[in-house]
Design goal:
disordered N terminus, 442 residues, Outer membrane efflux proteins (OEP), 2 domains, alpha+beta, elongated, 10 helices, four-stranded antiparallel beta sheet
């Protein structure tokens, strides 16, 4: 009995471990933002820019270094009293500290600090953009899974209908209403639908794997999303003109801000290059002392010598660039070109974002119209299918024509599902530009 209980506990443990985890869209997005490799790399870039800023601040401070040395010497030396060559041992100890500070460097230190602040800001913008992009990729993969699931429901439902029709056809054949060849047509139609179902199930598995890979999850078999029947969105955002959405996109997307920040960084690089041609002034201070001992004559003790031998050195160093093989002037020219290039990049990013937003706006409108047309087509196909079924049941329509009507009805159902999720995704793209969270799906 005890062994049985232990066995049941083990089985229960395996069942718990193998339970499928169903993810919501918000959970997927949050998990991806926390674990995605590209986002982690962007976070490292931000951390590095923070360190670089600390370096720029530290460059305003003086440095401080200490040194200590100890040496011994054993060998022939001249006795200072008898002038004889004798073997002697001497000891020499010394130590000190030194410090220097940049008093003037052509404002390069100040410009480097401004540049580091801008670089940190650009890294932050880049991270935010990366998070939005990953969120959009996750939402697209999430909706693809939902589409494939609904597609399977459509095909499974039609397979059930076709199986019933197979039985009805056999009854009609037995009653002499339709020829036996009609049964073969229905069987062929059923086989085709089952083949489509297998393809849809394979597409569902692949779409799950794609989303799991975005989340860095390797247990594909136990990964799934929450089954929800999302309705087609009300196109409220399309009530806004495209230029209004573009204005919002400039606030919520960071491509333009990144380009503008990089342009400012290029300007500070130019200032730094110009500052390197100016004289630089450095202040220096050092303190040192030493101790000497020899067995040839008496010397003062360590403390007395270290006190008496103290030295303080103060000096200024002025460096004046005169000729550096044209490198300074050429560096200025290169940075001027970089400034112009960065300005062009700002304009290009504005054009690219405007083009992207207007394209997304038109895509969303087109997707909405396609969905409306698909719904109308489905209603017409449903009426035609019901009429065909009535005629087929009384022997007024052959199995081939009836199968054609049924296949058209199934295709119309699939098209409604496809256009619905295409419409949802394209609306989400617009809403992302507008500043609406990607996880807000009705």
């Amino acid at each position: 009995m005890k062994k049985l209980i232990i066995f049941l506990f083990i089985i229960a443990g395996f069942s718990a471990n193998s339970q499928v985890k169903e993810w919501t869209l918000k959970e997927c997005v949050d998990y991806a933002i926390e674990n995605n490799i590209s986002i982690k790399q962007a976070e490292l870039d931000l951390d590095q820019s923070i360190i670089n800023k600390k370096d720029a601040v530290g460059n305003f401070l003086p440095n401080l270094n200490a040194r200590v040395s100890q040496s011994w010497n054993n060998g022939l030396a001249q006795n200072p009293v008898t002038f004889d060559a004798v073997t002697s041992t001497t000891q020499n100890s010394s130590g000190g500290i030194s410090s220097s500070i940049d008093l003037y460097t052509g404002l390069t230190r100040l410009n480097e600090l401004h540049k580091s602040k801008l670089a940190m800001l650009a890294s932050d913008y880049q991270l935010e953009n990366m998070q939005q992009d990953i969120s959009l990729f996750v939402a697209n993969s999430f909706l693809q899974i939902l589409f494939n699931k609904e597609q399977i429901k459509v095909l499974s439902s039609q397979i059930d209908v076709t199986k019933n029709e197979l039985q009805q056809t056999q009854e009609l054949i037995d009653a002499g209403v339709v020829p036996e060849g009609d049964l073969l047509e229905v069987q062929a139609n059923l086989a085709g639908q089952e083949q489509q179902l297998v393809a849809a199930e394979n597409a569902l598995y692949i779409s799950k794997v794609s989303l799991a890979q975005l989340l860095l999850i390797t247990d594909y078999d136990n990964f799934d999303i929450v089954d929800m029947d999302y309705l087609a969105p009300l196109p409220e955002i399309l009530n806004n003109p495209a230029e209004v959405i573009f204005g919002k996109a400039k606030e919520n997307r960071k491509e333009i801000l990144i380009a503008e920040t990089n342009a400012k960084i290029a300007e500070y690089d130019l200032k730094i290059a110009r500052g390197n041609l100016q004289p630089s002034l450095t202040g220096n201070y050092s303190f040192s002392s030493n101790y000497f001992k020899s067995d040839l004559f008496d010397t003062d003790d360590f403390e007395t010598q270290m006190t008496d031998n103290k030295q303080h050195n103060y000096f200024l160093q002025l460096n004046i660039p005169i000729f550096n093989r044209f490198s300074g002037r050429n560096n200025i020219k290169r940075n001027k070109l970089n400034v112009e290039r960065a300005k062009y990049q700002v304009e290009q990013e504005k054009l690219d974002l405007q083009t992207t937003v207007y394209q997304a706006y038109n895509d969303a409108k087109g997707a909405g119209k396609a969905y409306e047309a698909a719904v109308k087509t489905l209603k017409a196909r449903e009426l035609a299918y019901n009429f065909s079924q009535e005629r087929y049941n009384v022997g007024l329509l052959n199995s081939f024509d009836f199968s054609q009507s049924q296949n058209q009805y199934v295709a119309a159902q699939s098209e409604v599902v496809r256009t619905k999720y295409d419409f949802i995704f394209k609306i989400k793209v617009l809403e992302l530009y507008f500043g609406i969270p990607i996880t807000d799906i009705n």
